[in-house]
## 1
Amino acid sequence: MPDVDKELEEIKKLISGDDSDARPSSNALVPSRSGPGVPGAPKSPENKELTVRPAAQKPAPAQPRQVPAQSRPVQAQPKPVPAQPRQGPQGVQRTAGGKALGVPSAPGGRPPGPANKTEPPGISDGAARVRSYNISDSGKITKKPDKEQVPDTGSDKFNIDFDFDGEYRDVPEDKPLRRRRERRTGCVGGILYSAFIICISLVLASLLWLATVDVLGFNSVDEQVNITVPAGFTIEDVTDMLFDAGIIRYKFLFDLYAGYSHAEEKITPGAYILNRNLDYRSIVQGMTARAGVRVETTVTIPEGFTLAQICALLEDYGIITSAGDFWDVAANHDFNYHFLDKETLGDKLRLEGFLFPDTHNFYLDSTPVQVLNRLLREFDRRFSDVYIERAEAMGYSIRDIINVAAMIEREAGSDQERARIAAVIYNRLESSSFPHLQIDATIHYAIAGTDIPFSIELDDPYNTYICEGLPPGPIANPGLHSIRAALYPDATNEYYYALNREGTHNFFRTYEQHQAFVKSDQYGGR
C-alpha cells in the first residue's frame, strides 16, 4: 500500500504540474520509459524511472462528437488512445504535459481516435499506470476496478447537452425515416397528359370561335327583322328581343358587350330594322335615333274617317300604343296651326276634320303628338292660300268650310254629286224657309259607338233635324274632293235629295217631289 500511495502521489504531480523536475519547458509532454541514471526523475517501486519527454508526433485533431441513438450513458473504455491536445472541461482527462490520459469512447465502445494505433516509441510503463486510474472532473483520482471482479455499473457517464425530444418531436415512434421516392409518370402517363392538354385546348378554341362568330356576325342569314324598343326599356329587355328575333345567339355575351360599350345610354326607344348578319357594334348603332334605320309603316287613312276611327287604325298598325294618350293629346295639346281655335282646347273633338286623310308613312311606336302633328301638317299643306281666300270670299271660316265638306264626305255616293250636295247645303243655310239641314249623317255621328238607335228625334247637338244651322263641328275628316266641292258648289235651286238603289242620290226642288220618290220603288234608303 505505501507503494500505491506513492505512485498516486507521483501521478498527481504529473497531472497538476507541481513537480518542477518533471515539468517540461515547452511542447506537450507524455510519460516515457527512460534508462537509469536520469537525474531528477521519480523512481517506481520496480526500480524503474518515470520521465517526460517532448512528444515525437503532432497531436491528432479533435474528433467530432457523435450523437448516440438514445440518450443513455456510455462508459469510457480503457483502450489505449493516441495523444490528444488539451481540451475544455467536457470530461476530458489531461496529463501534466497536456497529453490526454484517457477519453470517453464513442458509441459502440470504440474510441474516437484512430483504431489499433500502436504506442509511439519511448512510452514508459508510467503511462500504463496512469491509464489504470480514473480522474473525475473535480480532480479526484481513483483506481479502476478489475474487469473480471467488478462489473460495469455505468457510473461514469457522458454529460451530453442535447435535446433529443425537441429535435425529433416530428419523427413517428418506431418508424424509420425513409427517403421519399420520386414518382415518375412514365411514357404512358406523358401521352395521356398531352392528350388531356390537347383536348382542353381544342374545347377552348371552339368556344372562342363560336363567340367570335356571334360577335362579328359571321355565318348569319341575310334577313331583316323589325325590333321595337319600348320606352323605359332595360338592356336585358333588348337582349331578350334580339335573342328571340335570332339576331344574337348568346345573351351573356351581348350583355358583356353592352356593359362595356354603354349601349343602354345609346339605344333610344322606337321601331328599327335590323339585319341578322350584323355584328354587335352595328346592332347597337342600328337602335339609335341618329344612325338607326327605324321601321316605317304605311297607313292609308280613308276619306271620311272620324277621329275615333283613325285612332283605332293607328293602334292596329302598332303606330300608337295607347289610345288614352292619343285622346288626351288630341284634346289638350296646343298644336301651332292657324286654322285651330285655341278656345276649343280641352274638347277631345277639336281636331276632327283637320286630320287629312291620305296614305302616310309612320314610324312604329310613334308618339301621339308625332302622329297627330303629321296629319295636321298635311292638312295645312293641302289647304292652300287659294282655298283660304275662297272661303273668305264666300263669307265662311275655314272651320265652316271643313264642316260642310265633312257632311259632303259622309253623304256623297260619287265624286260627280259632291258639288251638287254642297249646293243643297248652302241653299238651306242661306234660306229662312229651311232652318234645318236634316242630314242623316250627323245623327249617325252622334250615336257612333253607342247602342242608341237612329232617330230624327234624338236630343243631341249633332241632330240637324232639330238643331238649326251647321253642327257643332265637322263629323269626319274630308278629302280634297269634298273640300273643293265645299269651296266650289254647283249653282242650283235644289233643297232636297234622296238615296237611290244605285248608291247615289236623286235631287229635288220641292218637298212633294221628294216624298213621291221616297214612296217609289227607286228609293234606296231605309
## 2
Amino acid sequence: MTEPSTPPQGEAREPPPAASAPQAAATSPANLWVRLWEHKVLQWSLAYLGAAIAIAHGQELVAEAFEWPHLIGRLLMSLLVVGFPIVITLAWYHGHKRLKQIGAGELGIISVLVVIAAGLLVVFVRLPGEQVQARMEQTSHQDISQSPRTAMTVPAGVSIAVLPFVDMSPEHNQDYFSDGLSEEVLNQLAQIKELRVTGRTSSFSFKGKNEDLRVIGEKLGVNHLLEGSVRKSDKRLRVTAQLINAADGTHLWSHSYDSELTDVFAVQEQIAIAVAQALSITLDVGEMSRAKGGTTNVEAYDRYLQARTISNRGYGRQDLLRATELYREALAIDPKFARAWSALYSVLAATLIYLPENATSARKEMADASAHMIALAPDAWWTQAMRARQLTENHRWADAEAASNAAQAAAPVSEVEAVEAYSIFLWTVGRATEATEVGERVRQRDPLSLGLSYLLQISLCMSDRMEDYQAEYQRSKGLAGDHVEIDRLAATCHRTVALDSTLDSLHQNYVVQNGTNIGIIWILSKNGLRTNPRFKGLLRDLGLVEYFRASGKWGDFCKPVGTDDFECH
C-alpha cells in the first residue's frame, strides 16, 4: 500500500481549502437566521412576549378592581422589559442543547443583565409624586422658554380664576369632592386683597369643557388660571395643581400634594399659599389660614358638598328639601361642623319664603342651628350674616345694619350668602339704589351666577329701573339654574295691586306675623301704594320711621317733613 506523504519539516502546512468556508457561511445572514431558529430564540421570544402581554393586562384589571397604586404596575412593567434579554440569553444556551444546568458563561451574562436591570429600576421607577412633579416642572420650564412673546391686553392688576378640579379617581365618583376642593381653594385665594378672584359660578361654567385656556381667560377677564386634578383612593388624597398664564397658555407653576383626607383643609390652604407665592404676592401665612368652621370627617364633608351643589341651583321646592336633608345628614355625622350649621340655617330661611307650609318646624330648627353657630364660630362672617337676618326679622334695624355690614366686609366676595344678607337689609329699609350698586358690583365678579342675578333683579325692580331690570331678566335666561322664582319676580314686578287688600295683607304678614321678606312692601307700588296714608302707618308699625329719623337714612322713597312728619313717593 502506498503511505500518505508528509510535508518536510520546516515547510508551512497550508490549511485545507474548505476550512474557512463554514466560518464564512456561519456569519452570513441566512445561516445566522438558521442558528437563531435552531436555538429556538425566536420561539422563546414570541412566547415570552405573549406571556408578558397577558400578565400586564391581567395586572391592569386586578389593579383597577382593587385600586392598587400605580407603583406596582410600573415595577411589573419594568421587570417584564428587563426580563426579555435574560430570556434571549437562556434560549441561546438551552434552546438547542437542552442543557439543564446553567454554565459559567451564561451565568456571567445574566448577572450583568440583573445589575443593569437594578439600575434601570432605580432610575425609572420612582414614587408617583416625584415622577409627576419632575415631569410637570420640566414641562413648565419648556413652555416658558419656548412660548412666543406676543403683545396682549391684560386686565389691570393680578387676577385669577379657579377652574373646577378634574376627578381622576378610579371610579370617577368623587365629583362633589373635587368641586369642593376647588371652591375651598377659591375662597382661600379670595382672602388676598391684592388678588382679584373670579366667582365660583363663572369659573365652574367651564366644567367638563375642553376649551382653549386662552379663550377661557378672555371670557373671564383674568390673566391667570388655576387648574388641577384630584385622585381620591380610600382615605388618601392626591391634588395636582397648575398655574397657567391666560395670555399664552404657558405653565408658570405646578405642584402635587399627597395627604390623608383627615388633613384635607391643610392641603387646600397649602395650595392657595403656593399659588399666591407664584404670583409674587407678599403673603402673611396667618392671614391666609382657613377660617374656623370646617370638618375632618370625609363623609360629613361629602354630604355638605352635595347639599351646596343642590342649593346653588336655585329655590326649587325639591332642591330645598333635598339640600336640607343632606345638611342634616352631615351634622348627624359631625355635630361640630359649623359651616354645615350655617348652610342649614340659610336653606331653612329660604324655606320660610318658598315653602311657607313648613314655616313652624323650620323656625324651630333655625333656632337650634343659630345656637350651634354662635357656640362654634361666634365671630365668623356667616354667623354675622345669620345675626343680620334675625335682627332684620325682629325689626332691630340699627343692629341689623351693623351685623350685615360686618358680614359683608369679612366674607369672600364670591359668597352669595353674605351679599344676600346685606341686600335683604337694604331692601327692607328702602335703600334700593345702594342694593343695586352692590348687586352690580358682585355681578362683575361672578357674571354667570343666577343667584346673584336674581338679587340684582330685585333691586332693579324696587328702584323702578324697568329698562335695566328687563335687560338683566333677559340675560338671566341663559344662566344655569332654577328659574321659577326669577319668572315669579317678573310677574310681581309688573303687577298692579288693589290698595286696601294689599295693605291689609302686608300688615298681617309683616307686623302681626313677623314675615321675613319685608322688602316687598317697596316693590308693590305700581298704583300709588307708597303714597297711601295707610302705608305710612305700616312703616311706623314696623319701626322703620324711628330708624329713619335716628340714622338720617331715609332711603329712596321717603323723606322727612318738618320734625314730626314724613312723606313717601
